[in-house]
Every structure is written in structure tokens, then in C-alpha cells.
Design goal:
Number of strands of chain B: 7
Distance between the termini of chain A: 33 Å
Radius of gyration of chain B: 26 Å
Number of strands of chain A: 0
Radius of gyration of chain A: 23 Å
Helix content of chain B: 25-40%
Strand content of chain B: 5-15%
Structural class of chain A: mainly alpha
CATH topology of one domain in chain B: Cytochrome Bc1 Complex, Chain D, domain 2
Structural class of chain B: alpha+beta
CATH architecture of chain A: Up-down Bundle
Number of domains of chain A: 1
Distance between the termini of chain B: 59 Å
Shape of chain B: flat
Largest sheet of chain A: none
Oligomer: heterodimer
Shape of chain A: globular
Largest interface: A-B, 86 and 79 residues
CATH class of one domain in chain B: Mainly Alpha
Number of helices of chain A: 15
Strand content of chain A: under 5%
Number of helices of chain B: 9
CATH topology of chain A: Cytochrome C Oxidase, Chain A
Helix content of chain A: over 70%
CATH superfamily of one domain in chain B: Cytochrome c-like domain
Order of helices and strands of chain B: HEEHEHHEHEHHHEEH
Chain lengths: 488, 301
């Protein structure tokens, strides 16, 4: 009998990543689909809200009413959906899959994982309603009110436990880089998310200690956690999809320790009203974690040297490749921002927004798109509903990223320069950024369209296998009843 | 690496280190902070915001104002001014001292300077220079004082008199320092714009008071209703395109009033030991345009 995985491989016409045993595939299937499908839905909702916020710069009184559509709420909701709605569940799903596949063992507790995914999504839904109602916390990258954050955390806890157990039961004793990255990532998220929510929402600390914790959480979430989950995935998938030997393990180890030891000190801007040693130390951490970016560039080059053409021919590799490029650019931008903190204060401008687009969407989301495109056919046993959508998604994502990040970065530099000139009134400064903001709206529109295709494609694929399962069940039932009839 | 436990331990220690540095230490250092005194006046700082302003902070949080406004004024350094307050009786000596301090000053200019004191003699100089000037002037029989002035692009813009310090936020929850400056820094907005009525009109329709504003309006914090009798005392004084139809008035809801009370309570204008400046210092080349009340057409500082 031809396994569904082999069929998918033939259908995709490209090397599938080592399909794994049927047992592994079956155990991963539903938990991952729950995570991915919900995440894709949140992604579309989040980019729609982001677009709304962006349009407000074309006309400030656009949808000034009702209250739940005000700039500050849709902006917060959109940021939260992108991070907690999309990045967290997708990266956790991919992490679980890596634990199972690389350890050559079925997922430990698929039902628990599916339930965890459901809780996570429920938390995001409650959080979204909360933010739009005006119950958002006001803390950046921790927008959800305590109840919703609690649900997200519980969901994460179940998924993380399944991930760690799966690693523990692995049949392949040797761990490869991806496994240490994901293991550390699972641990990291639990610690930072619980600390931040406990110290800010449940038992709030006093004064600017709140700001310190908020900065610490953001730096660790965007820098370390996203770095670990995305790079682990890239290190596992890139060589397999490209049919190459993985890069040198010691380089991966170097990147790993740089992220852990230096990445965890980033995030505090030079201007923060905190004891002066904190921003200073944070700047040093940011500059040193730039070394990790170099390491990533080296390892990717080691893997792909002489084969860049194959990256271009395979859409999944294109997503991963562009994602890695965005990681490098985002890392460099972060160093520039930290170094300009005391003079140009780039971090107060749209440059920061450009850098976050690079890191969250350009890097993590693109890596996750490529990975989901690579693993779902093997999981469900059929190819993607629409190959054309898949190709189009890449172009929309790539062009969208360019149109969002380039104008915002340029606009930020112009804005910073003008803010230094006190003779220029603030209104003039802010109007000077409008052209850049309007260009970036085009980018957001393209990104929204791409995200829409991703969702439809995923939903179409899942609907296809549901239909097939239903038809099979009906046929079996039909055969049984006719069989019984013949016996009577 | 073969052992999951090693990776786990490594990650544990790395994160524990950063947690100790950026969570535990600030909690011990600034989380336990108590009120301080202003320098030199010796008043207690900060005092808690009034109750209405505290409610206003919640409106500020709920509507995400911090996505566009920072509350962290940055200061690049401190400079010193020397103020001549009294010419004394030894005019020739003082003129000589003045010429020593300001080498390009002619005698008639020096005599002119001595009229209508106090006047600045030196501006924007280092502490050593200022102190030696004060010494020269006082030994000649005049009286001179040293003024401290905080400088930097934010202060030049009139966003405050000094940098923001942890004390400014001692009693706030949540502390929303903001990350981006789509709009002006608000750490000191209550000083430059103390008029509650202005804030209410600005919140209702920013462009009604600041021409060309790109700040979104917050009409949902207000109620447009039919005028009954003499009308409400709270009704906004709107004109032109922003005024309601005849027979209607716009009155702030309690949220809007609280928010405006919060905005005028944002004053980081107390000189502190850790962030000193001289009250009334007129400023060096980059004079802050404090208290400049922006009006329609005038823009904001």
C-alpha cells in the first residue's frame, strides 16, 4: 500500500522532509492542525486590524467611533494577535513536530496537546475582546488582561509539557541543534510570560520597576524566544529541504549561547528613566547579541553554498531563506537602534516599527509559513489545496514586507533627524512622516492579502481531508449495512 | 550536545542571570523607592495624583494613548549659567571682573550690562568655568549665582525642564512610558498646557485646536445632545467645522473629564538631587519654550 505521506511527496513534486512513521504522523496531525488553523485565522484578523490602524494616518477621523475601533485599541489588538495569536501557537506546533520527528517517536499525549492548543486559542479570543473593550493592560507585548493571559499560559503549559515529554522519550539518543533550541524556547516562554504577568498584573510591582519588567519581557520574547524557535526550525529544515549536510554544529552552538547569554539583556532603551546601569548594560547586550546574527549568516551559508539556486526553485525554501535574511536585517537594525539611543533616539521613531516588522513578520512568520507549507502535506497525506495560492503568498509576503519595512525605516530616520531640530514644530515633523506611513499601508494591504491566501489554503486543505474522511466513513458504513442485509 | 538536561541547565542559568539583573534588582532598587525631596526647596516629591487624575490614567491605558505618546524625557547633559544679580559698589572692579569673564566685552557694554540686573553673564558653560566666573565676580564685590540647566533635544523642544526620573512615576499603575513618539512626549504636558478646557477640545477634535494635527479624535468620550435651558456649563467651546449643529452641545463624559485631569497632572517640573536644574533658569542657546500655550494655527512646541 502506498502511504499517504508518499503520495503527498509525489504530489508535491519536491523532496518532502523525512516523512516519519505513520504513528508519529497520526499523533501530530490533529493537535498541529488545531494550532495552525486557529493561528492562521488570528493572523488574518490581526493584519486586518493593523490595516485599520494604518488607515487612520490617511484620515485621523476615520472610524474615530465606535470606541473599540480607536487607534490605540486596534493597534494593541493587532500586535497581540500577531504575536500571541499567530507566532506563539504556530511556533509551538512546529516545535512539537520537531520533537516528535527528530526524536523518532510519537507525540507524548496528542489529546493533551490538542486541548492545550484549544486553551491557547480561547485565551487569545478572550484577550482580543478584552483589548477591544478597553481592558488592555497598556503594557507592550503583554496586552491581554490577566484572565486571558492565564488561559494562554495554561495552554502553553500543556503544550510545553507534551514537548518536553516527547523529547524525553526520544528513540534517537543524539540531539541535534533544533532540539536544544526548541527545548530552551519552551522553557524560556514559560518563565518570561509568567514572571511578567505575575509582576505586572497579578501582584504589580511599584513605579518604574513595572517598565523594567516590561522591557525585559519584550527583549526576551522578540529576541530570545523568537530567535530560539525560528532558528531551531531553520537549522532542522534547511539542510533537509535543500538536500545538503547541515552546517557545522559548533556554529549553531555559538548562536545558541549568544542568544541565551546576551540576547536576554536586550530591550531597554537608552532614554528609559531607570537607573543608568540598566540601559547601558542593555546596549552592551544588544551589540553582543549581534554576534549571533553573524553566526546565523555563517551557518546558512555553510548549508547552502553553491545551492542558492535550489532555494529559489522551492517555495518552502524561499520562505525560509527570506525569513533568515529578515532575521539578519532585523538584528542589524536593532544594533543601530541601540547605538543611536542617546543621540538620535531612533527607537522613538517609526524605525522601531520597521524593525519589529522585520523581526516578527519578516523573520518568524515567514519561517513559520515555510515550515507549515513543508509539514502539513506530510501530516494530512494530501498536497496543498492550491499550489498557486502558495506561490502567490510568497510574492505578497515578500513585497509586503519590503513596502512596510523600507518606508518605515526611512521615515524613522527622517523623523529622528527632524526631531533634533527644535525650530521645526511637532506638527510639521509628524506630517513629514505621512508619506512614508501611507506607503507602508500598501505593504500592509499586500501582507493582509497574503495572509488571507494562507488561511484559505490551510482551511481548504483541512476541509479536503475532512470531506475524504467523511466519505470513507460513509462508504464503510454503507458496506457494513449491505453486508448485514446479505447475511440476513 | 547529547543531554537534554545540560541544555536545560544552561538555559536555566542564562535566564536566571538576566532575571536577577533586570527583574529582581530593579525591584529592589526602584521598586522599594520612597518619596524624595525637591532641591533646594525641600518639598516632598512626588505627591500622589488626585483621584480623578488616577481614574484618567485608566482611560489613558484603556484607549492606548501610549501607542503614540512617550512619557520619558531625555537629557543629554547639564550646563551652567552665571547670573549677575547685584553690581555692588566697586564699579571699576566689577567691570574689570566682567571683562575677565567675558573677554570680548567692551567697557561701555560692561557698564550697560550692570543696569537692570539680574542678567546672565555666561550661558551654557561647564561647571568649572561657571564656578571660576562666580568667584571672580564675587571677589570684585558683585553678587553672582550659578544656574543649572538640563539640555538635550527633548528639552530644547520644550518637553520639560529635566529628564524623567523614576520618582515621577512612583504612585502610578500602570506605568506607561510609551515606546514611540507619533505624538509629543507627555511627561510634562500639564506644565505647557494647563488648561483643562483646551485638553477637552483637543481630545474631542484635535484639529480644532491644533491645525494640521494627525492625532485621532475621541468623540466617543463626549456626548452630543440637545441644549436644554441655558445649556450645560461643561459644554465645549467649539467653533467652525467642529461645532455641533445649532441647538446641540458637546459635553464631556466622566471619562473625558478624568483623562483631562490626568493630562494636566503630568508635570515633571520638580528639581531633584538626581536631576537638578535651577527654577527660573532662562536657558542657554537652546531656550525651552515652556508654558507656550499652543493655539489654533500656532501648532505645538
Amino acid at each position: 500500500m502506498v502511504s499517504p505521506e508518499a503520495k503527498a511527496k509525489a504530489a508535491a513534486g519536491a523532496p518532502a522532509i523525512d516523512a516519519g512513521s505513520a504513528e508519529e504522523t497520526v499523533s501530530c496531525r490533529w493537535p498541529l492542525l488545531v494550532l495552525f488553523l486557529g493561528a492562521a485565522g488570528w493572523l488574518v484578523a490581526g493584519s486586518l486590524l493593523g490595516l485599520l490602524a494604518s488607515i487612520k494616518f490617511h484620515s485621523p477621523m476615520f472610524l474615530a467611533e465606535p470606541a473599540w475601533l480607536t487607534y490605540g485599541r486596534v493597534k494593541a489588538a493587532s500586535a497581540a494577535l500577531l504575536v500571541y495569536g499567530f507566532c506563539v501557537p504556530t511556533a509551538l506546533g512546529v516545535g512539537l513536530w520537531l520533537m516528535s520527528r527528530l526524536g523518532r517517536v510519537a507525540l507524548a499525549g496528542p489529546v493533551v496537546a490538542g486541548f492545550g492548543g484549544g486553551l491557547l486559542h480561547a485565551g487569545v479570543a478572550v484577550g482580543l475582546v478584552g483589548v477591544l473593550r478597553g481592558d488592555g493592560t497598556g503594557f507592550l507585548h503583554l496586552e491581554f488582561p490577566a484572565g486571558a493571559a492565564g488561559l494562554v499560559f495554561l495552554g502553553y503549559l500543556l503544550l510545553g509539557t507534551v514537548g518536553v515529554l516527547t523529547l524525553y522519550r526520544r528513540r534517537e539518543a543524539r540531539m541535534e541543534a533544533a532540539q536544544w533550541f526548541v527545548l530552551a524556547g519552551l522553557f524560556w516562554f514559560g518563565w518570561i510570560y509568567s514572571t511578567a504577568n505575575l509582576c505586572l498584573l497579578v501582584f504589580p510591582v511599584r513605579g518604574v520597576a513595572q517598565a523594567a519588567i516590561n522591557y525585559w519581557h519584550t527583549g526576551n520574547l522578540l529576541g530570545v524566544w523568537m530567535g530560539l524557535m525560528g532558528l531551531g526550525t531553520v537549522f532542522a529544515l534547511l539542510p533537509r529541504l535543500a538536500g545538503r549536510e547541515p552546517g557545522r554544529e559548533y556554529v549553531a552552538m555559538f548562536v545558541f549561547w549568544v542568544l541565551l547569554l546576551f540576547g536576554s539583556w536586550t530591550g531597554i532603551p537608552a532614554t528609559a528613566p531607570l537607573p543608568a546601569w540598566m540601559p547601558a548594560l542593555s546596549t552592551v547586550g544588544t551589540v553582543l547579541s549581534g554576534l549571533g546574527v553573524l553566526g546565523v549568516a555563517v551557518i546558512v551559508h555553510q548549508t547552502l553554498a553553491g545551492r542558492y539556486g535550489s532555494v529559489w526553485r522551492d517555495e518552502r525554501l524561499r520562505f525560509l531563506g527570506l525569513g533568515v535574511a529578515a532575521y539578519v536585517v532585523g538584528g542589524v537594525m536593532q544594533v543601530v537602534e541601540a547605538l543611536s539611543g542617546r543621540s538620535w533616539m531612533l527607537h522613538f521613531t517609526w524605525f522601531t516599527a520597521a524593525r519589529e516588522w522585520m523581526q516578527v513578520y519578516g523573520y518568524l512568520a515567514l519561517v513559520m509559513f515555510g515550515t507549515v507549507y513543508a509539514i502539513v502535506p506530510a501530516l494530512v497525506g494530501v498536497d496543498w489545496w492550491s499550489r498557486r495560492f502558495l506561490r502567490l503568498h510568497f510574492w505578497l509576503a515578500g513585497a509586503g514586507l519590503l513596502f512596510v519595512a523600507a518606508p518605515l525605516a526611512a521615515g524613522g530616520v527622517v523623523e529622528a533627524a527632524r526631531l533634533l531640530n527644535p525650530a521645526l514644530g511637532f506638527v510639521e515633523v509628524s506630517r513629514g512622516t505621512l508619506m512614508f506611513l501611507r506607503l507602508s499601508t500598501i505593504g500592509e494591504l499586500l501582507i493582509l492579502a497574503g495572509n488571507g491566501l494562507f488561511f484559505v489554503n490551510l482551511a481548504g486543505t483541512v476541509a479536503g481531508i475532512c470531506r475524504r474522511a467523511l466519505a470513507d466513513a460513509l462508504r464503510r458504513w454503507g458496506a457494513e449495512t449491505t453486508g448485514e442485509g446479505a447475511a440476513a | 550536545m547529547r543531554h537534554g538536561a545540560l541544555v536545560y541547565l544552561g538555559a536555566f542559568f542564562a535566564l536566571a542571570l538576566s532575571w536577577t539583573g533586570f527583574v529582581l534588582t530593579p525591584q529592589m532598587q526602584v521598586g522599594q523607592m520612597v518619596a524624595t525631596n525637591t532641591v533646594p526647596a525641600g518639598a516632598r516629591y512626588p505627591v500622589a495624583r488626585p483621584g480623578l487624575a488616577q481614574q484618567g490614567l485608566q482611560v489613558y491605558r484603556a484607549n492606548g494613548c501610549a501607542y503614540c505618546h512617550s512619557q520619558q524625557v531625555w537629557q543629554q547633559g547639564t550646563v551652567f549659567d552665571v547670573m549677575l544679580t547685584d553690581g555692588g559698589t566697586n564699579q571699576p572692579g566689577v567691570v574689570a571682573a566682567l571683562q575677565a569673564v567675558m573677554p570680548r566685552l567692551s567697557r561701555p557694554e560692561a557698564l550697560q550690562l550692570l543696569e537692570g540686573l539680574p542678567k546672565p553673564v555666561l550661558r551654557g558653560v561647564s561647571r568649572e568655568e561657571a564656578e571660576s566666573a562666580v568667584k571672580k565676580l564675587t571677589t570684585s564685590g558683585a553678587k553672582a549665582t550659578l544656574w543649572i540647566e538640563a539640555v538635550g533635544p527633548d528639552l530644547a523642544r520644550g518637553w520639560g525642564k529635566r529628564r524623567s526620573v523614576p520618582e515621577d512615576f512612583l504612585y502610578d499603575y500602570p506605568v506607561l512610558l510609551g515606546a514611540q513618539r507619533v505624538g509629543p512626549d507627555l511627561a510634562d504636558v500639564g506644565v505647557r498646557q494647563p488648561d483643562v478646557g483646551w485638553h477637552l477640545r483637543h481630545l474631542y477634535a484635535p484639529a480644532s485646536v491644533v491645525t494640521g494635527s494627525v492625532m485621532p479624535g475621541y468623540p466617543y468620550l463626549f456626548e452630543k445632545r440637545r441644549v436644554v435651558g441655558a445649556g450645560s456649563a461643561d459644554a465645549l467651546a467649539l467653533s467652525g467645522d467642529h461645532a455641533p449643529e445649532v441647538g446641540y452641545e458637546v459635553v464631556p463624559k466622566p471619562e473625558a473629564k478624568a483623562l483631562a485631569a490626568y493630562l494636566v497632572s503630568l508635570r515633571a517640573d520638580a528639581p531633584l538631587f538626581t536631576a537638578p536644574f535651577s527654577v527660573g533658569a532662562s536657558g542657554g542657546p537652546a531656550a525651552p519654550a515652556t508654558n507656550a500655550a499652543p493655539t489654533a494655527g500656532g501648532g505645538v512646541p
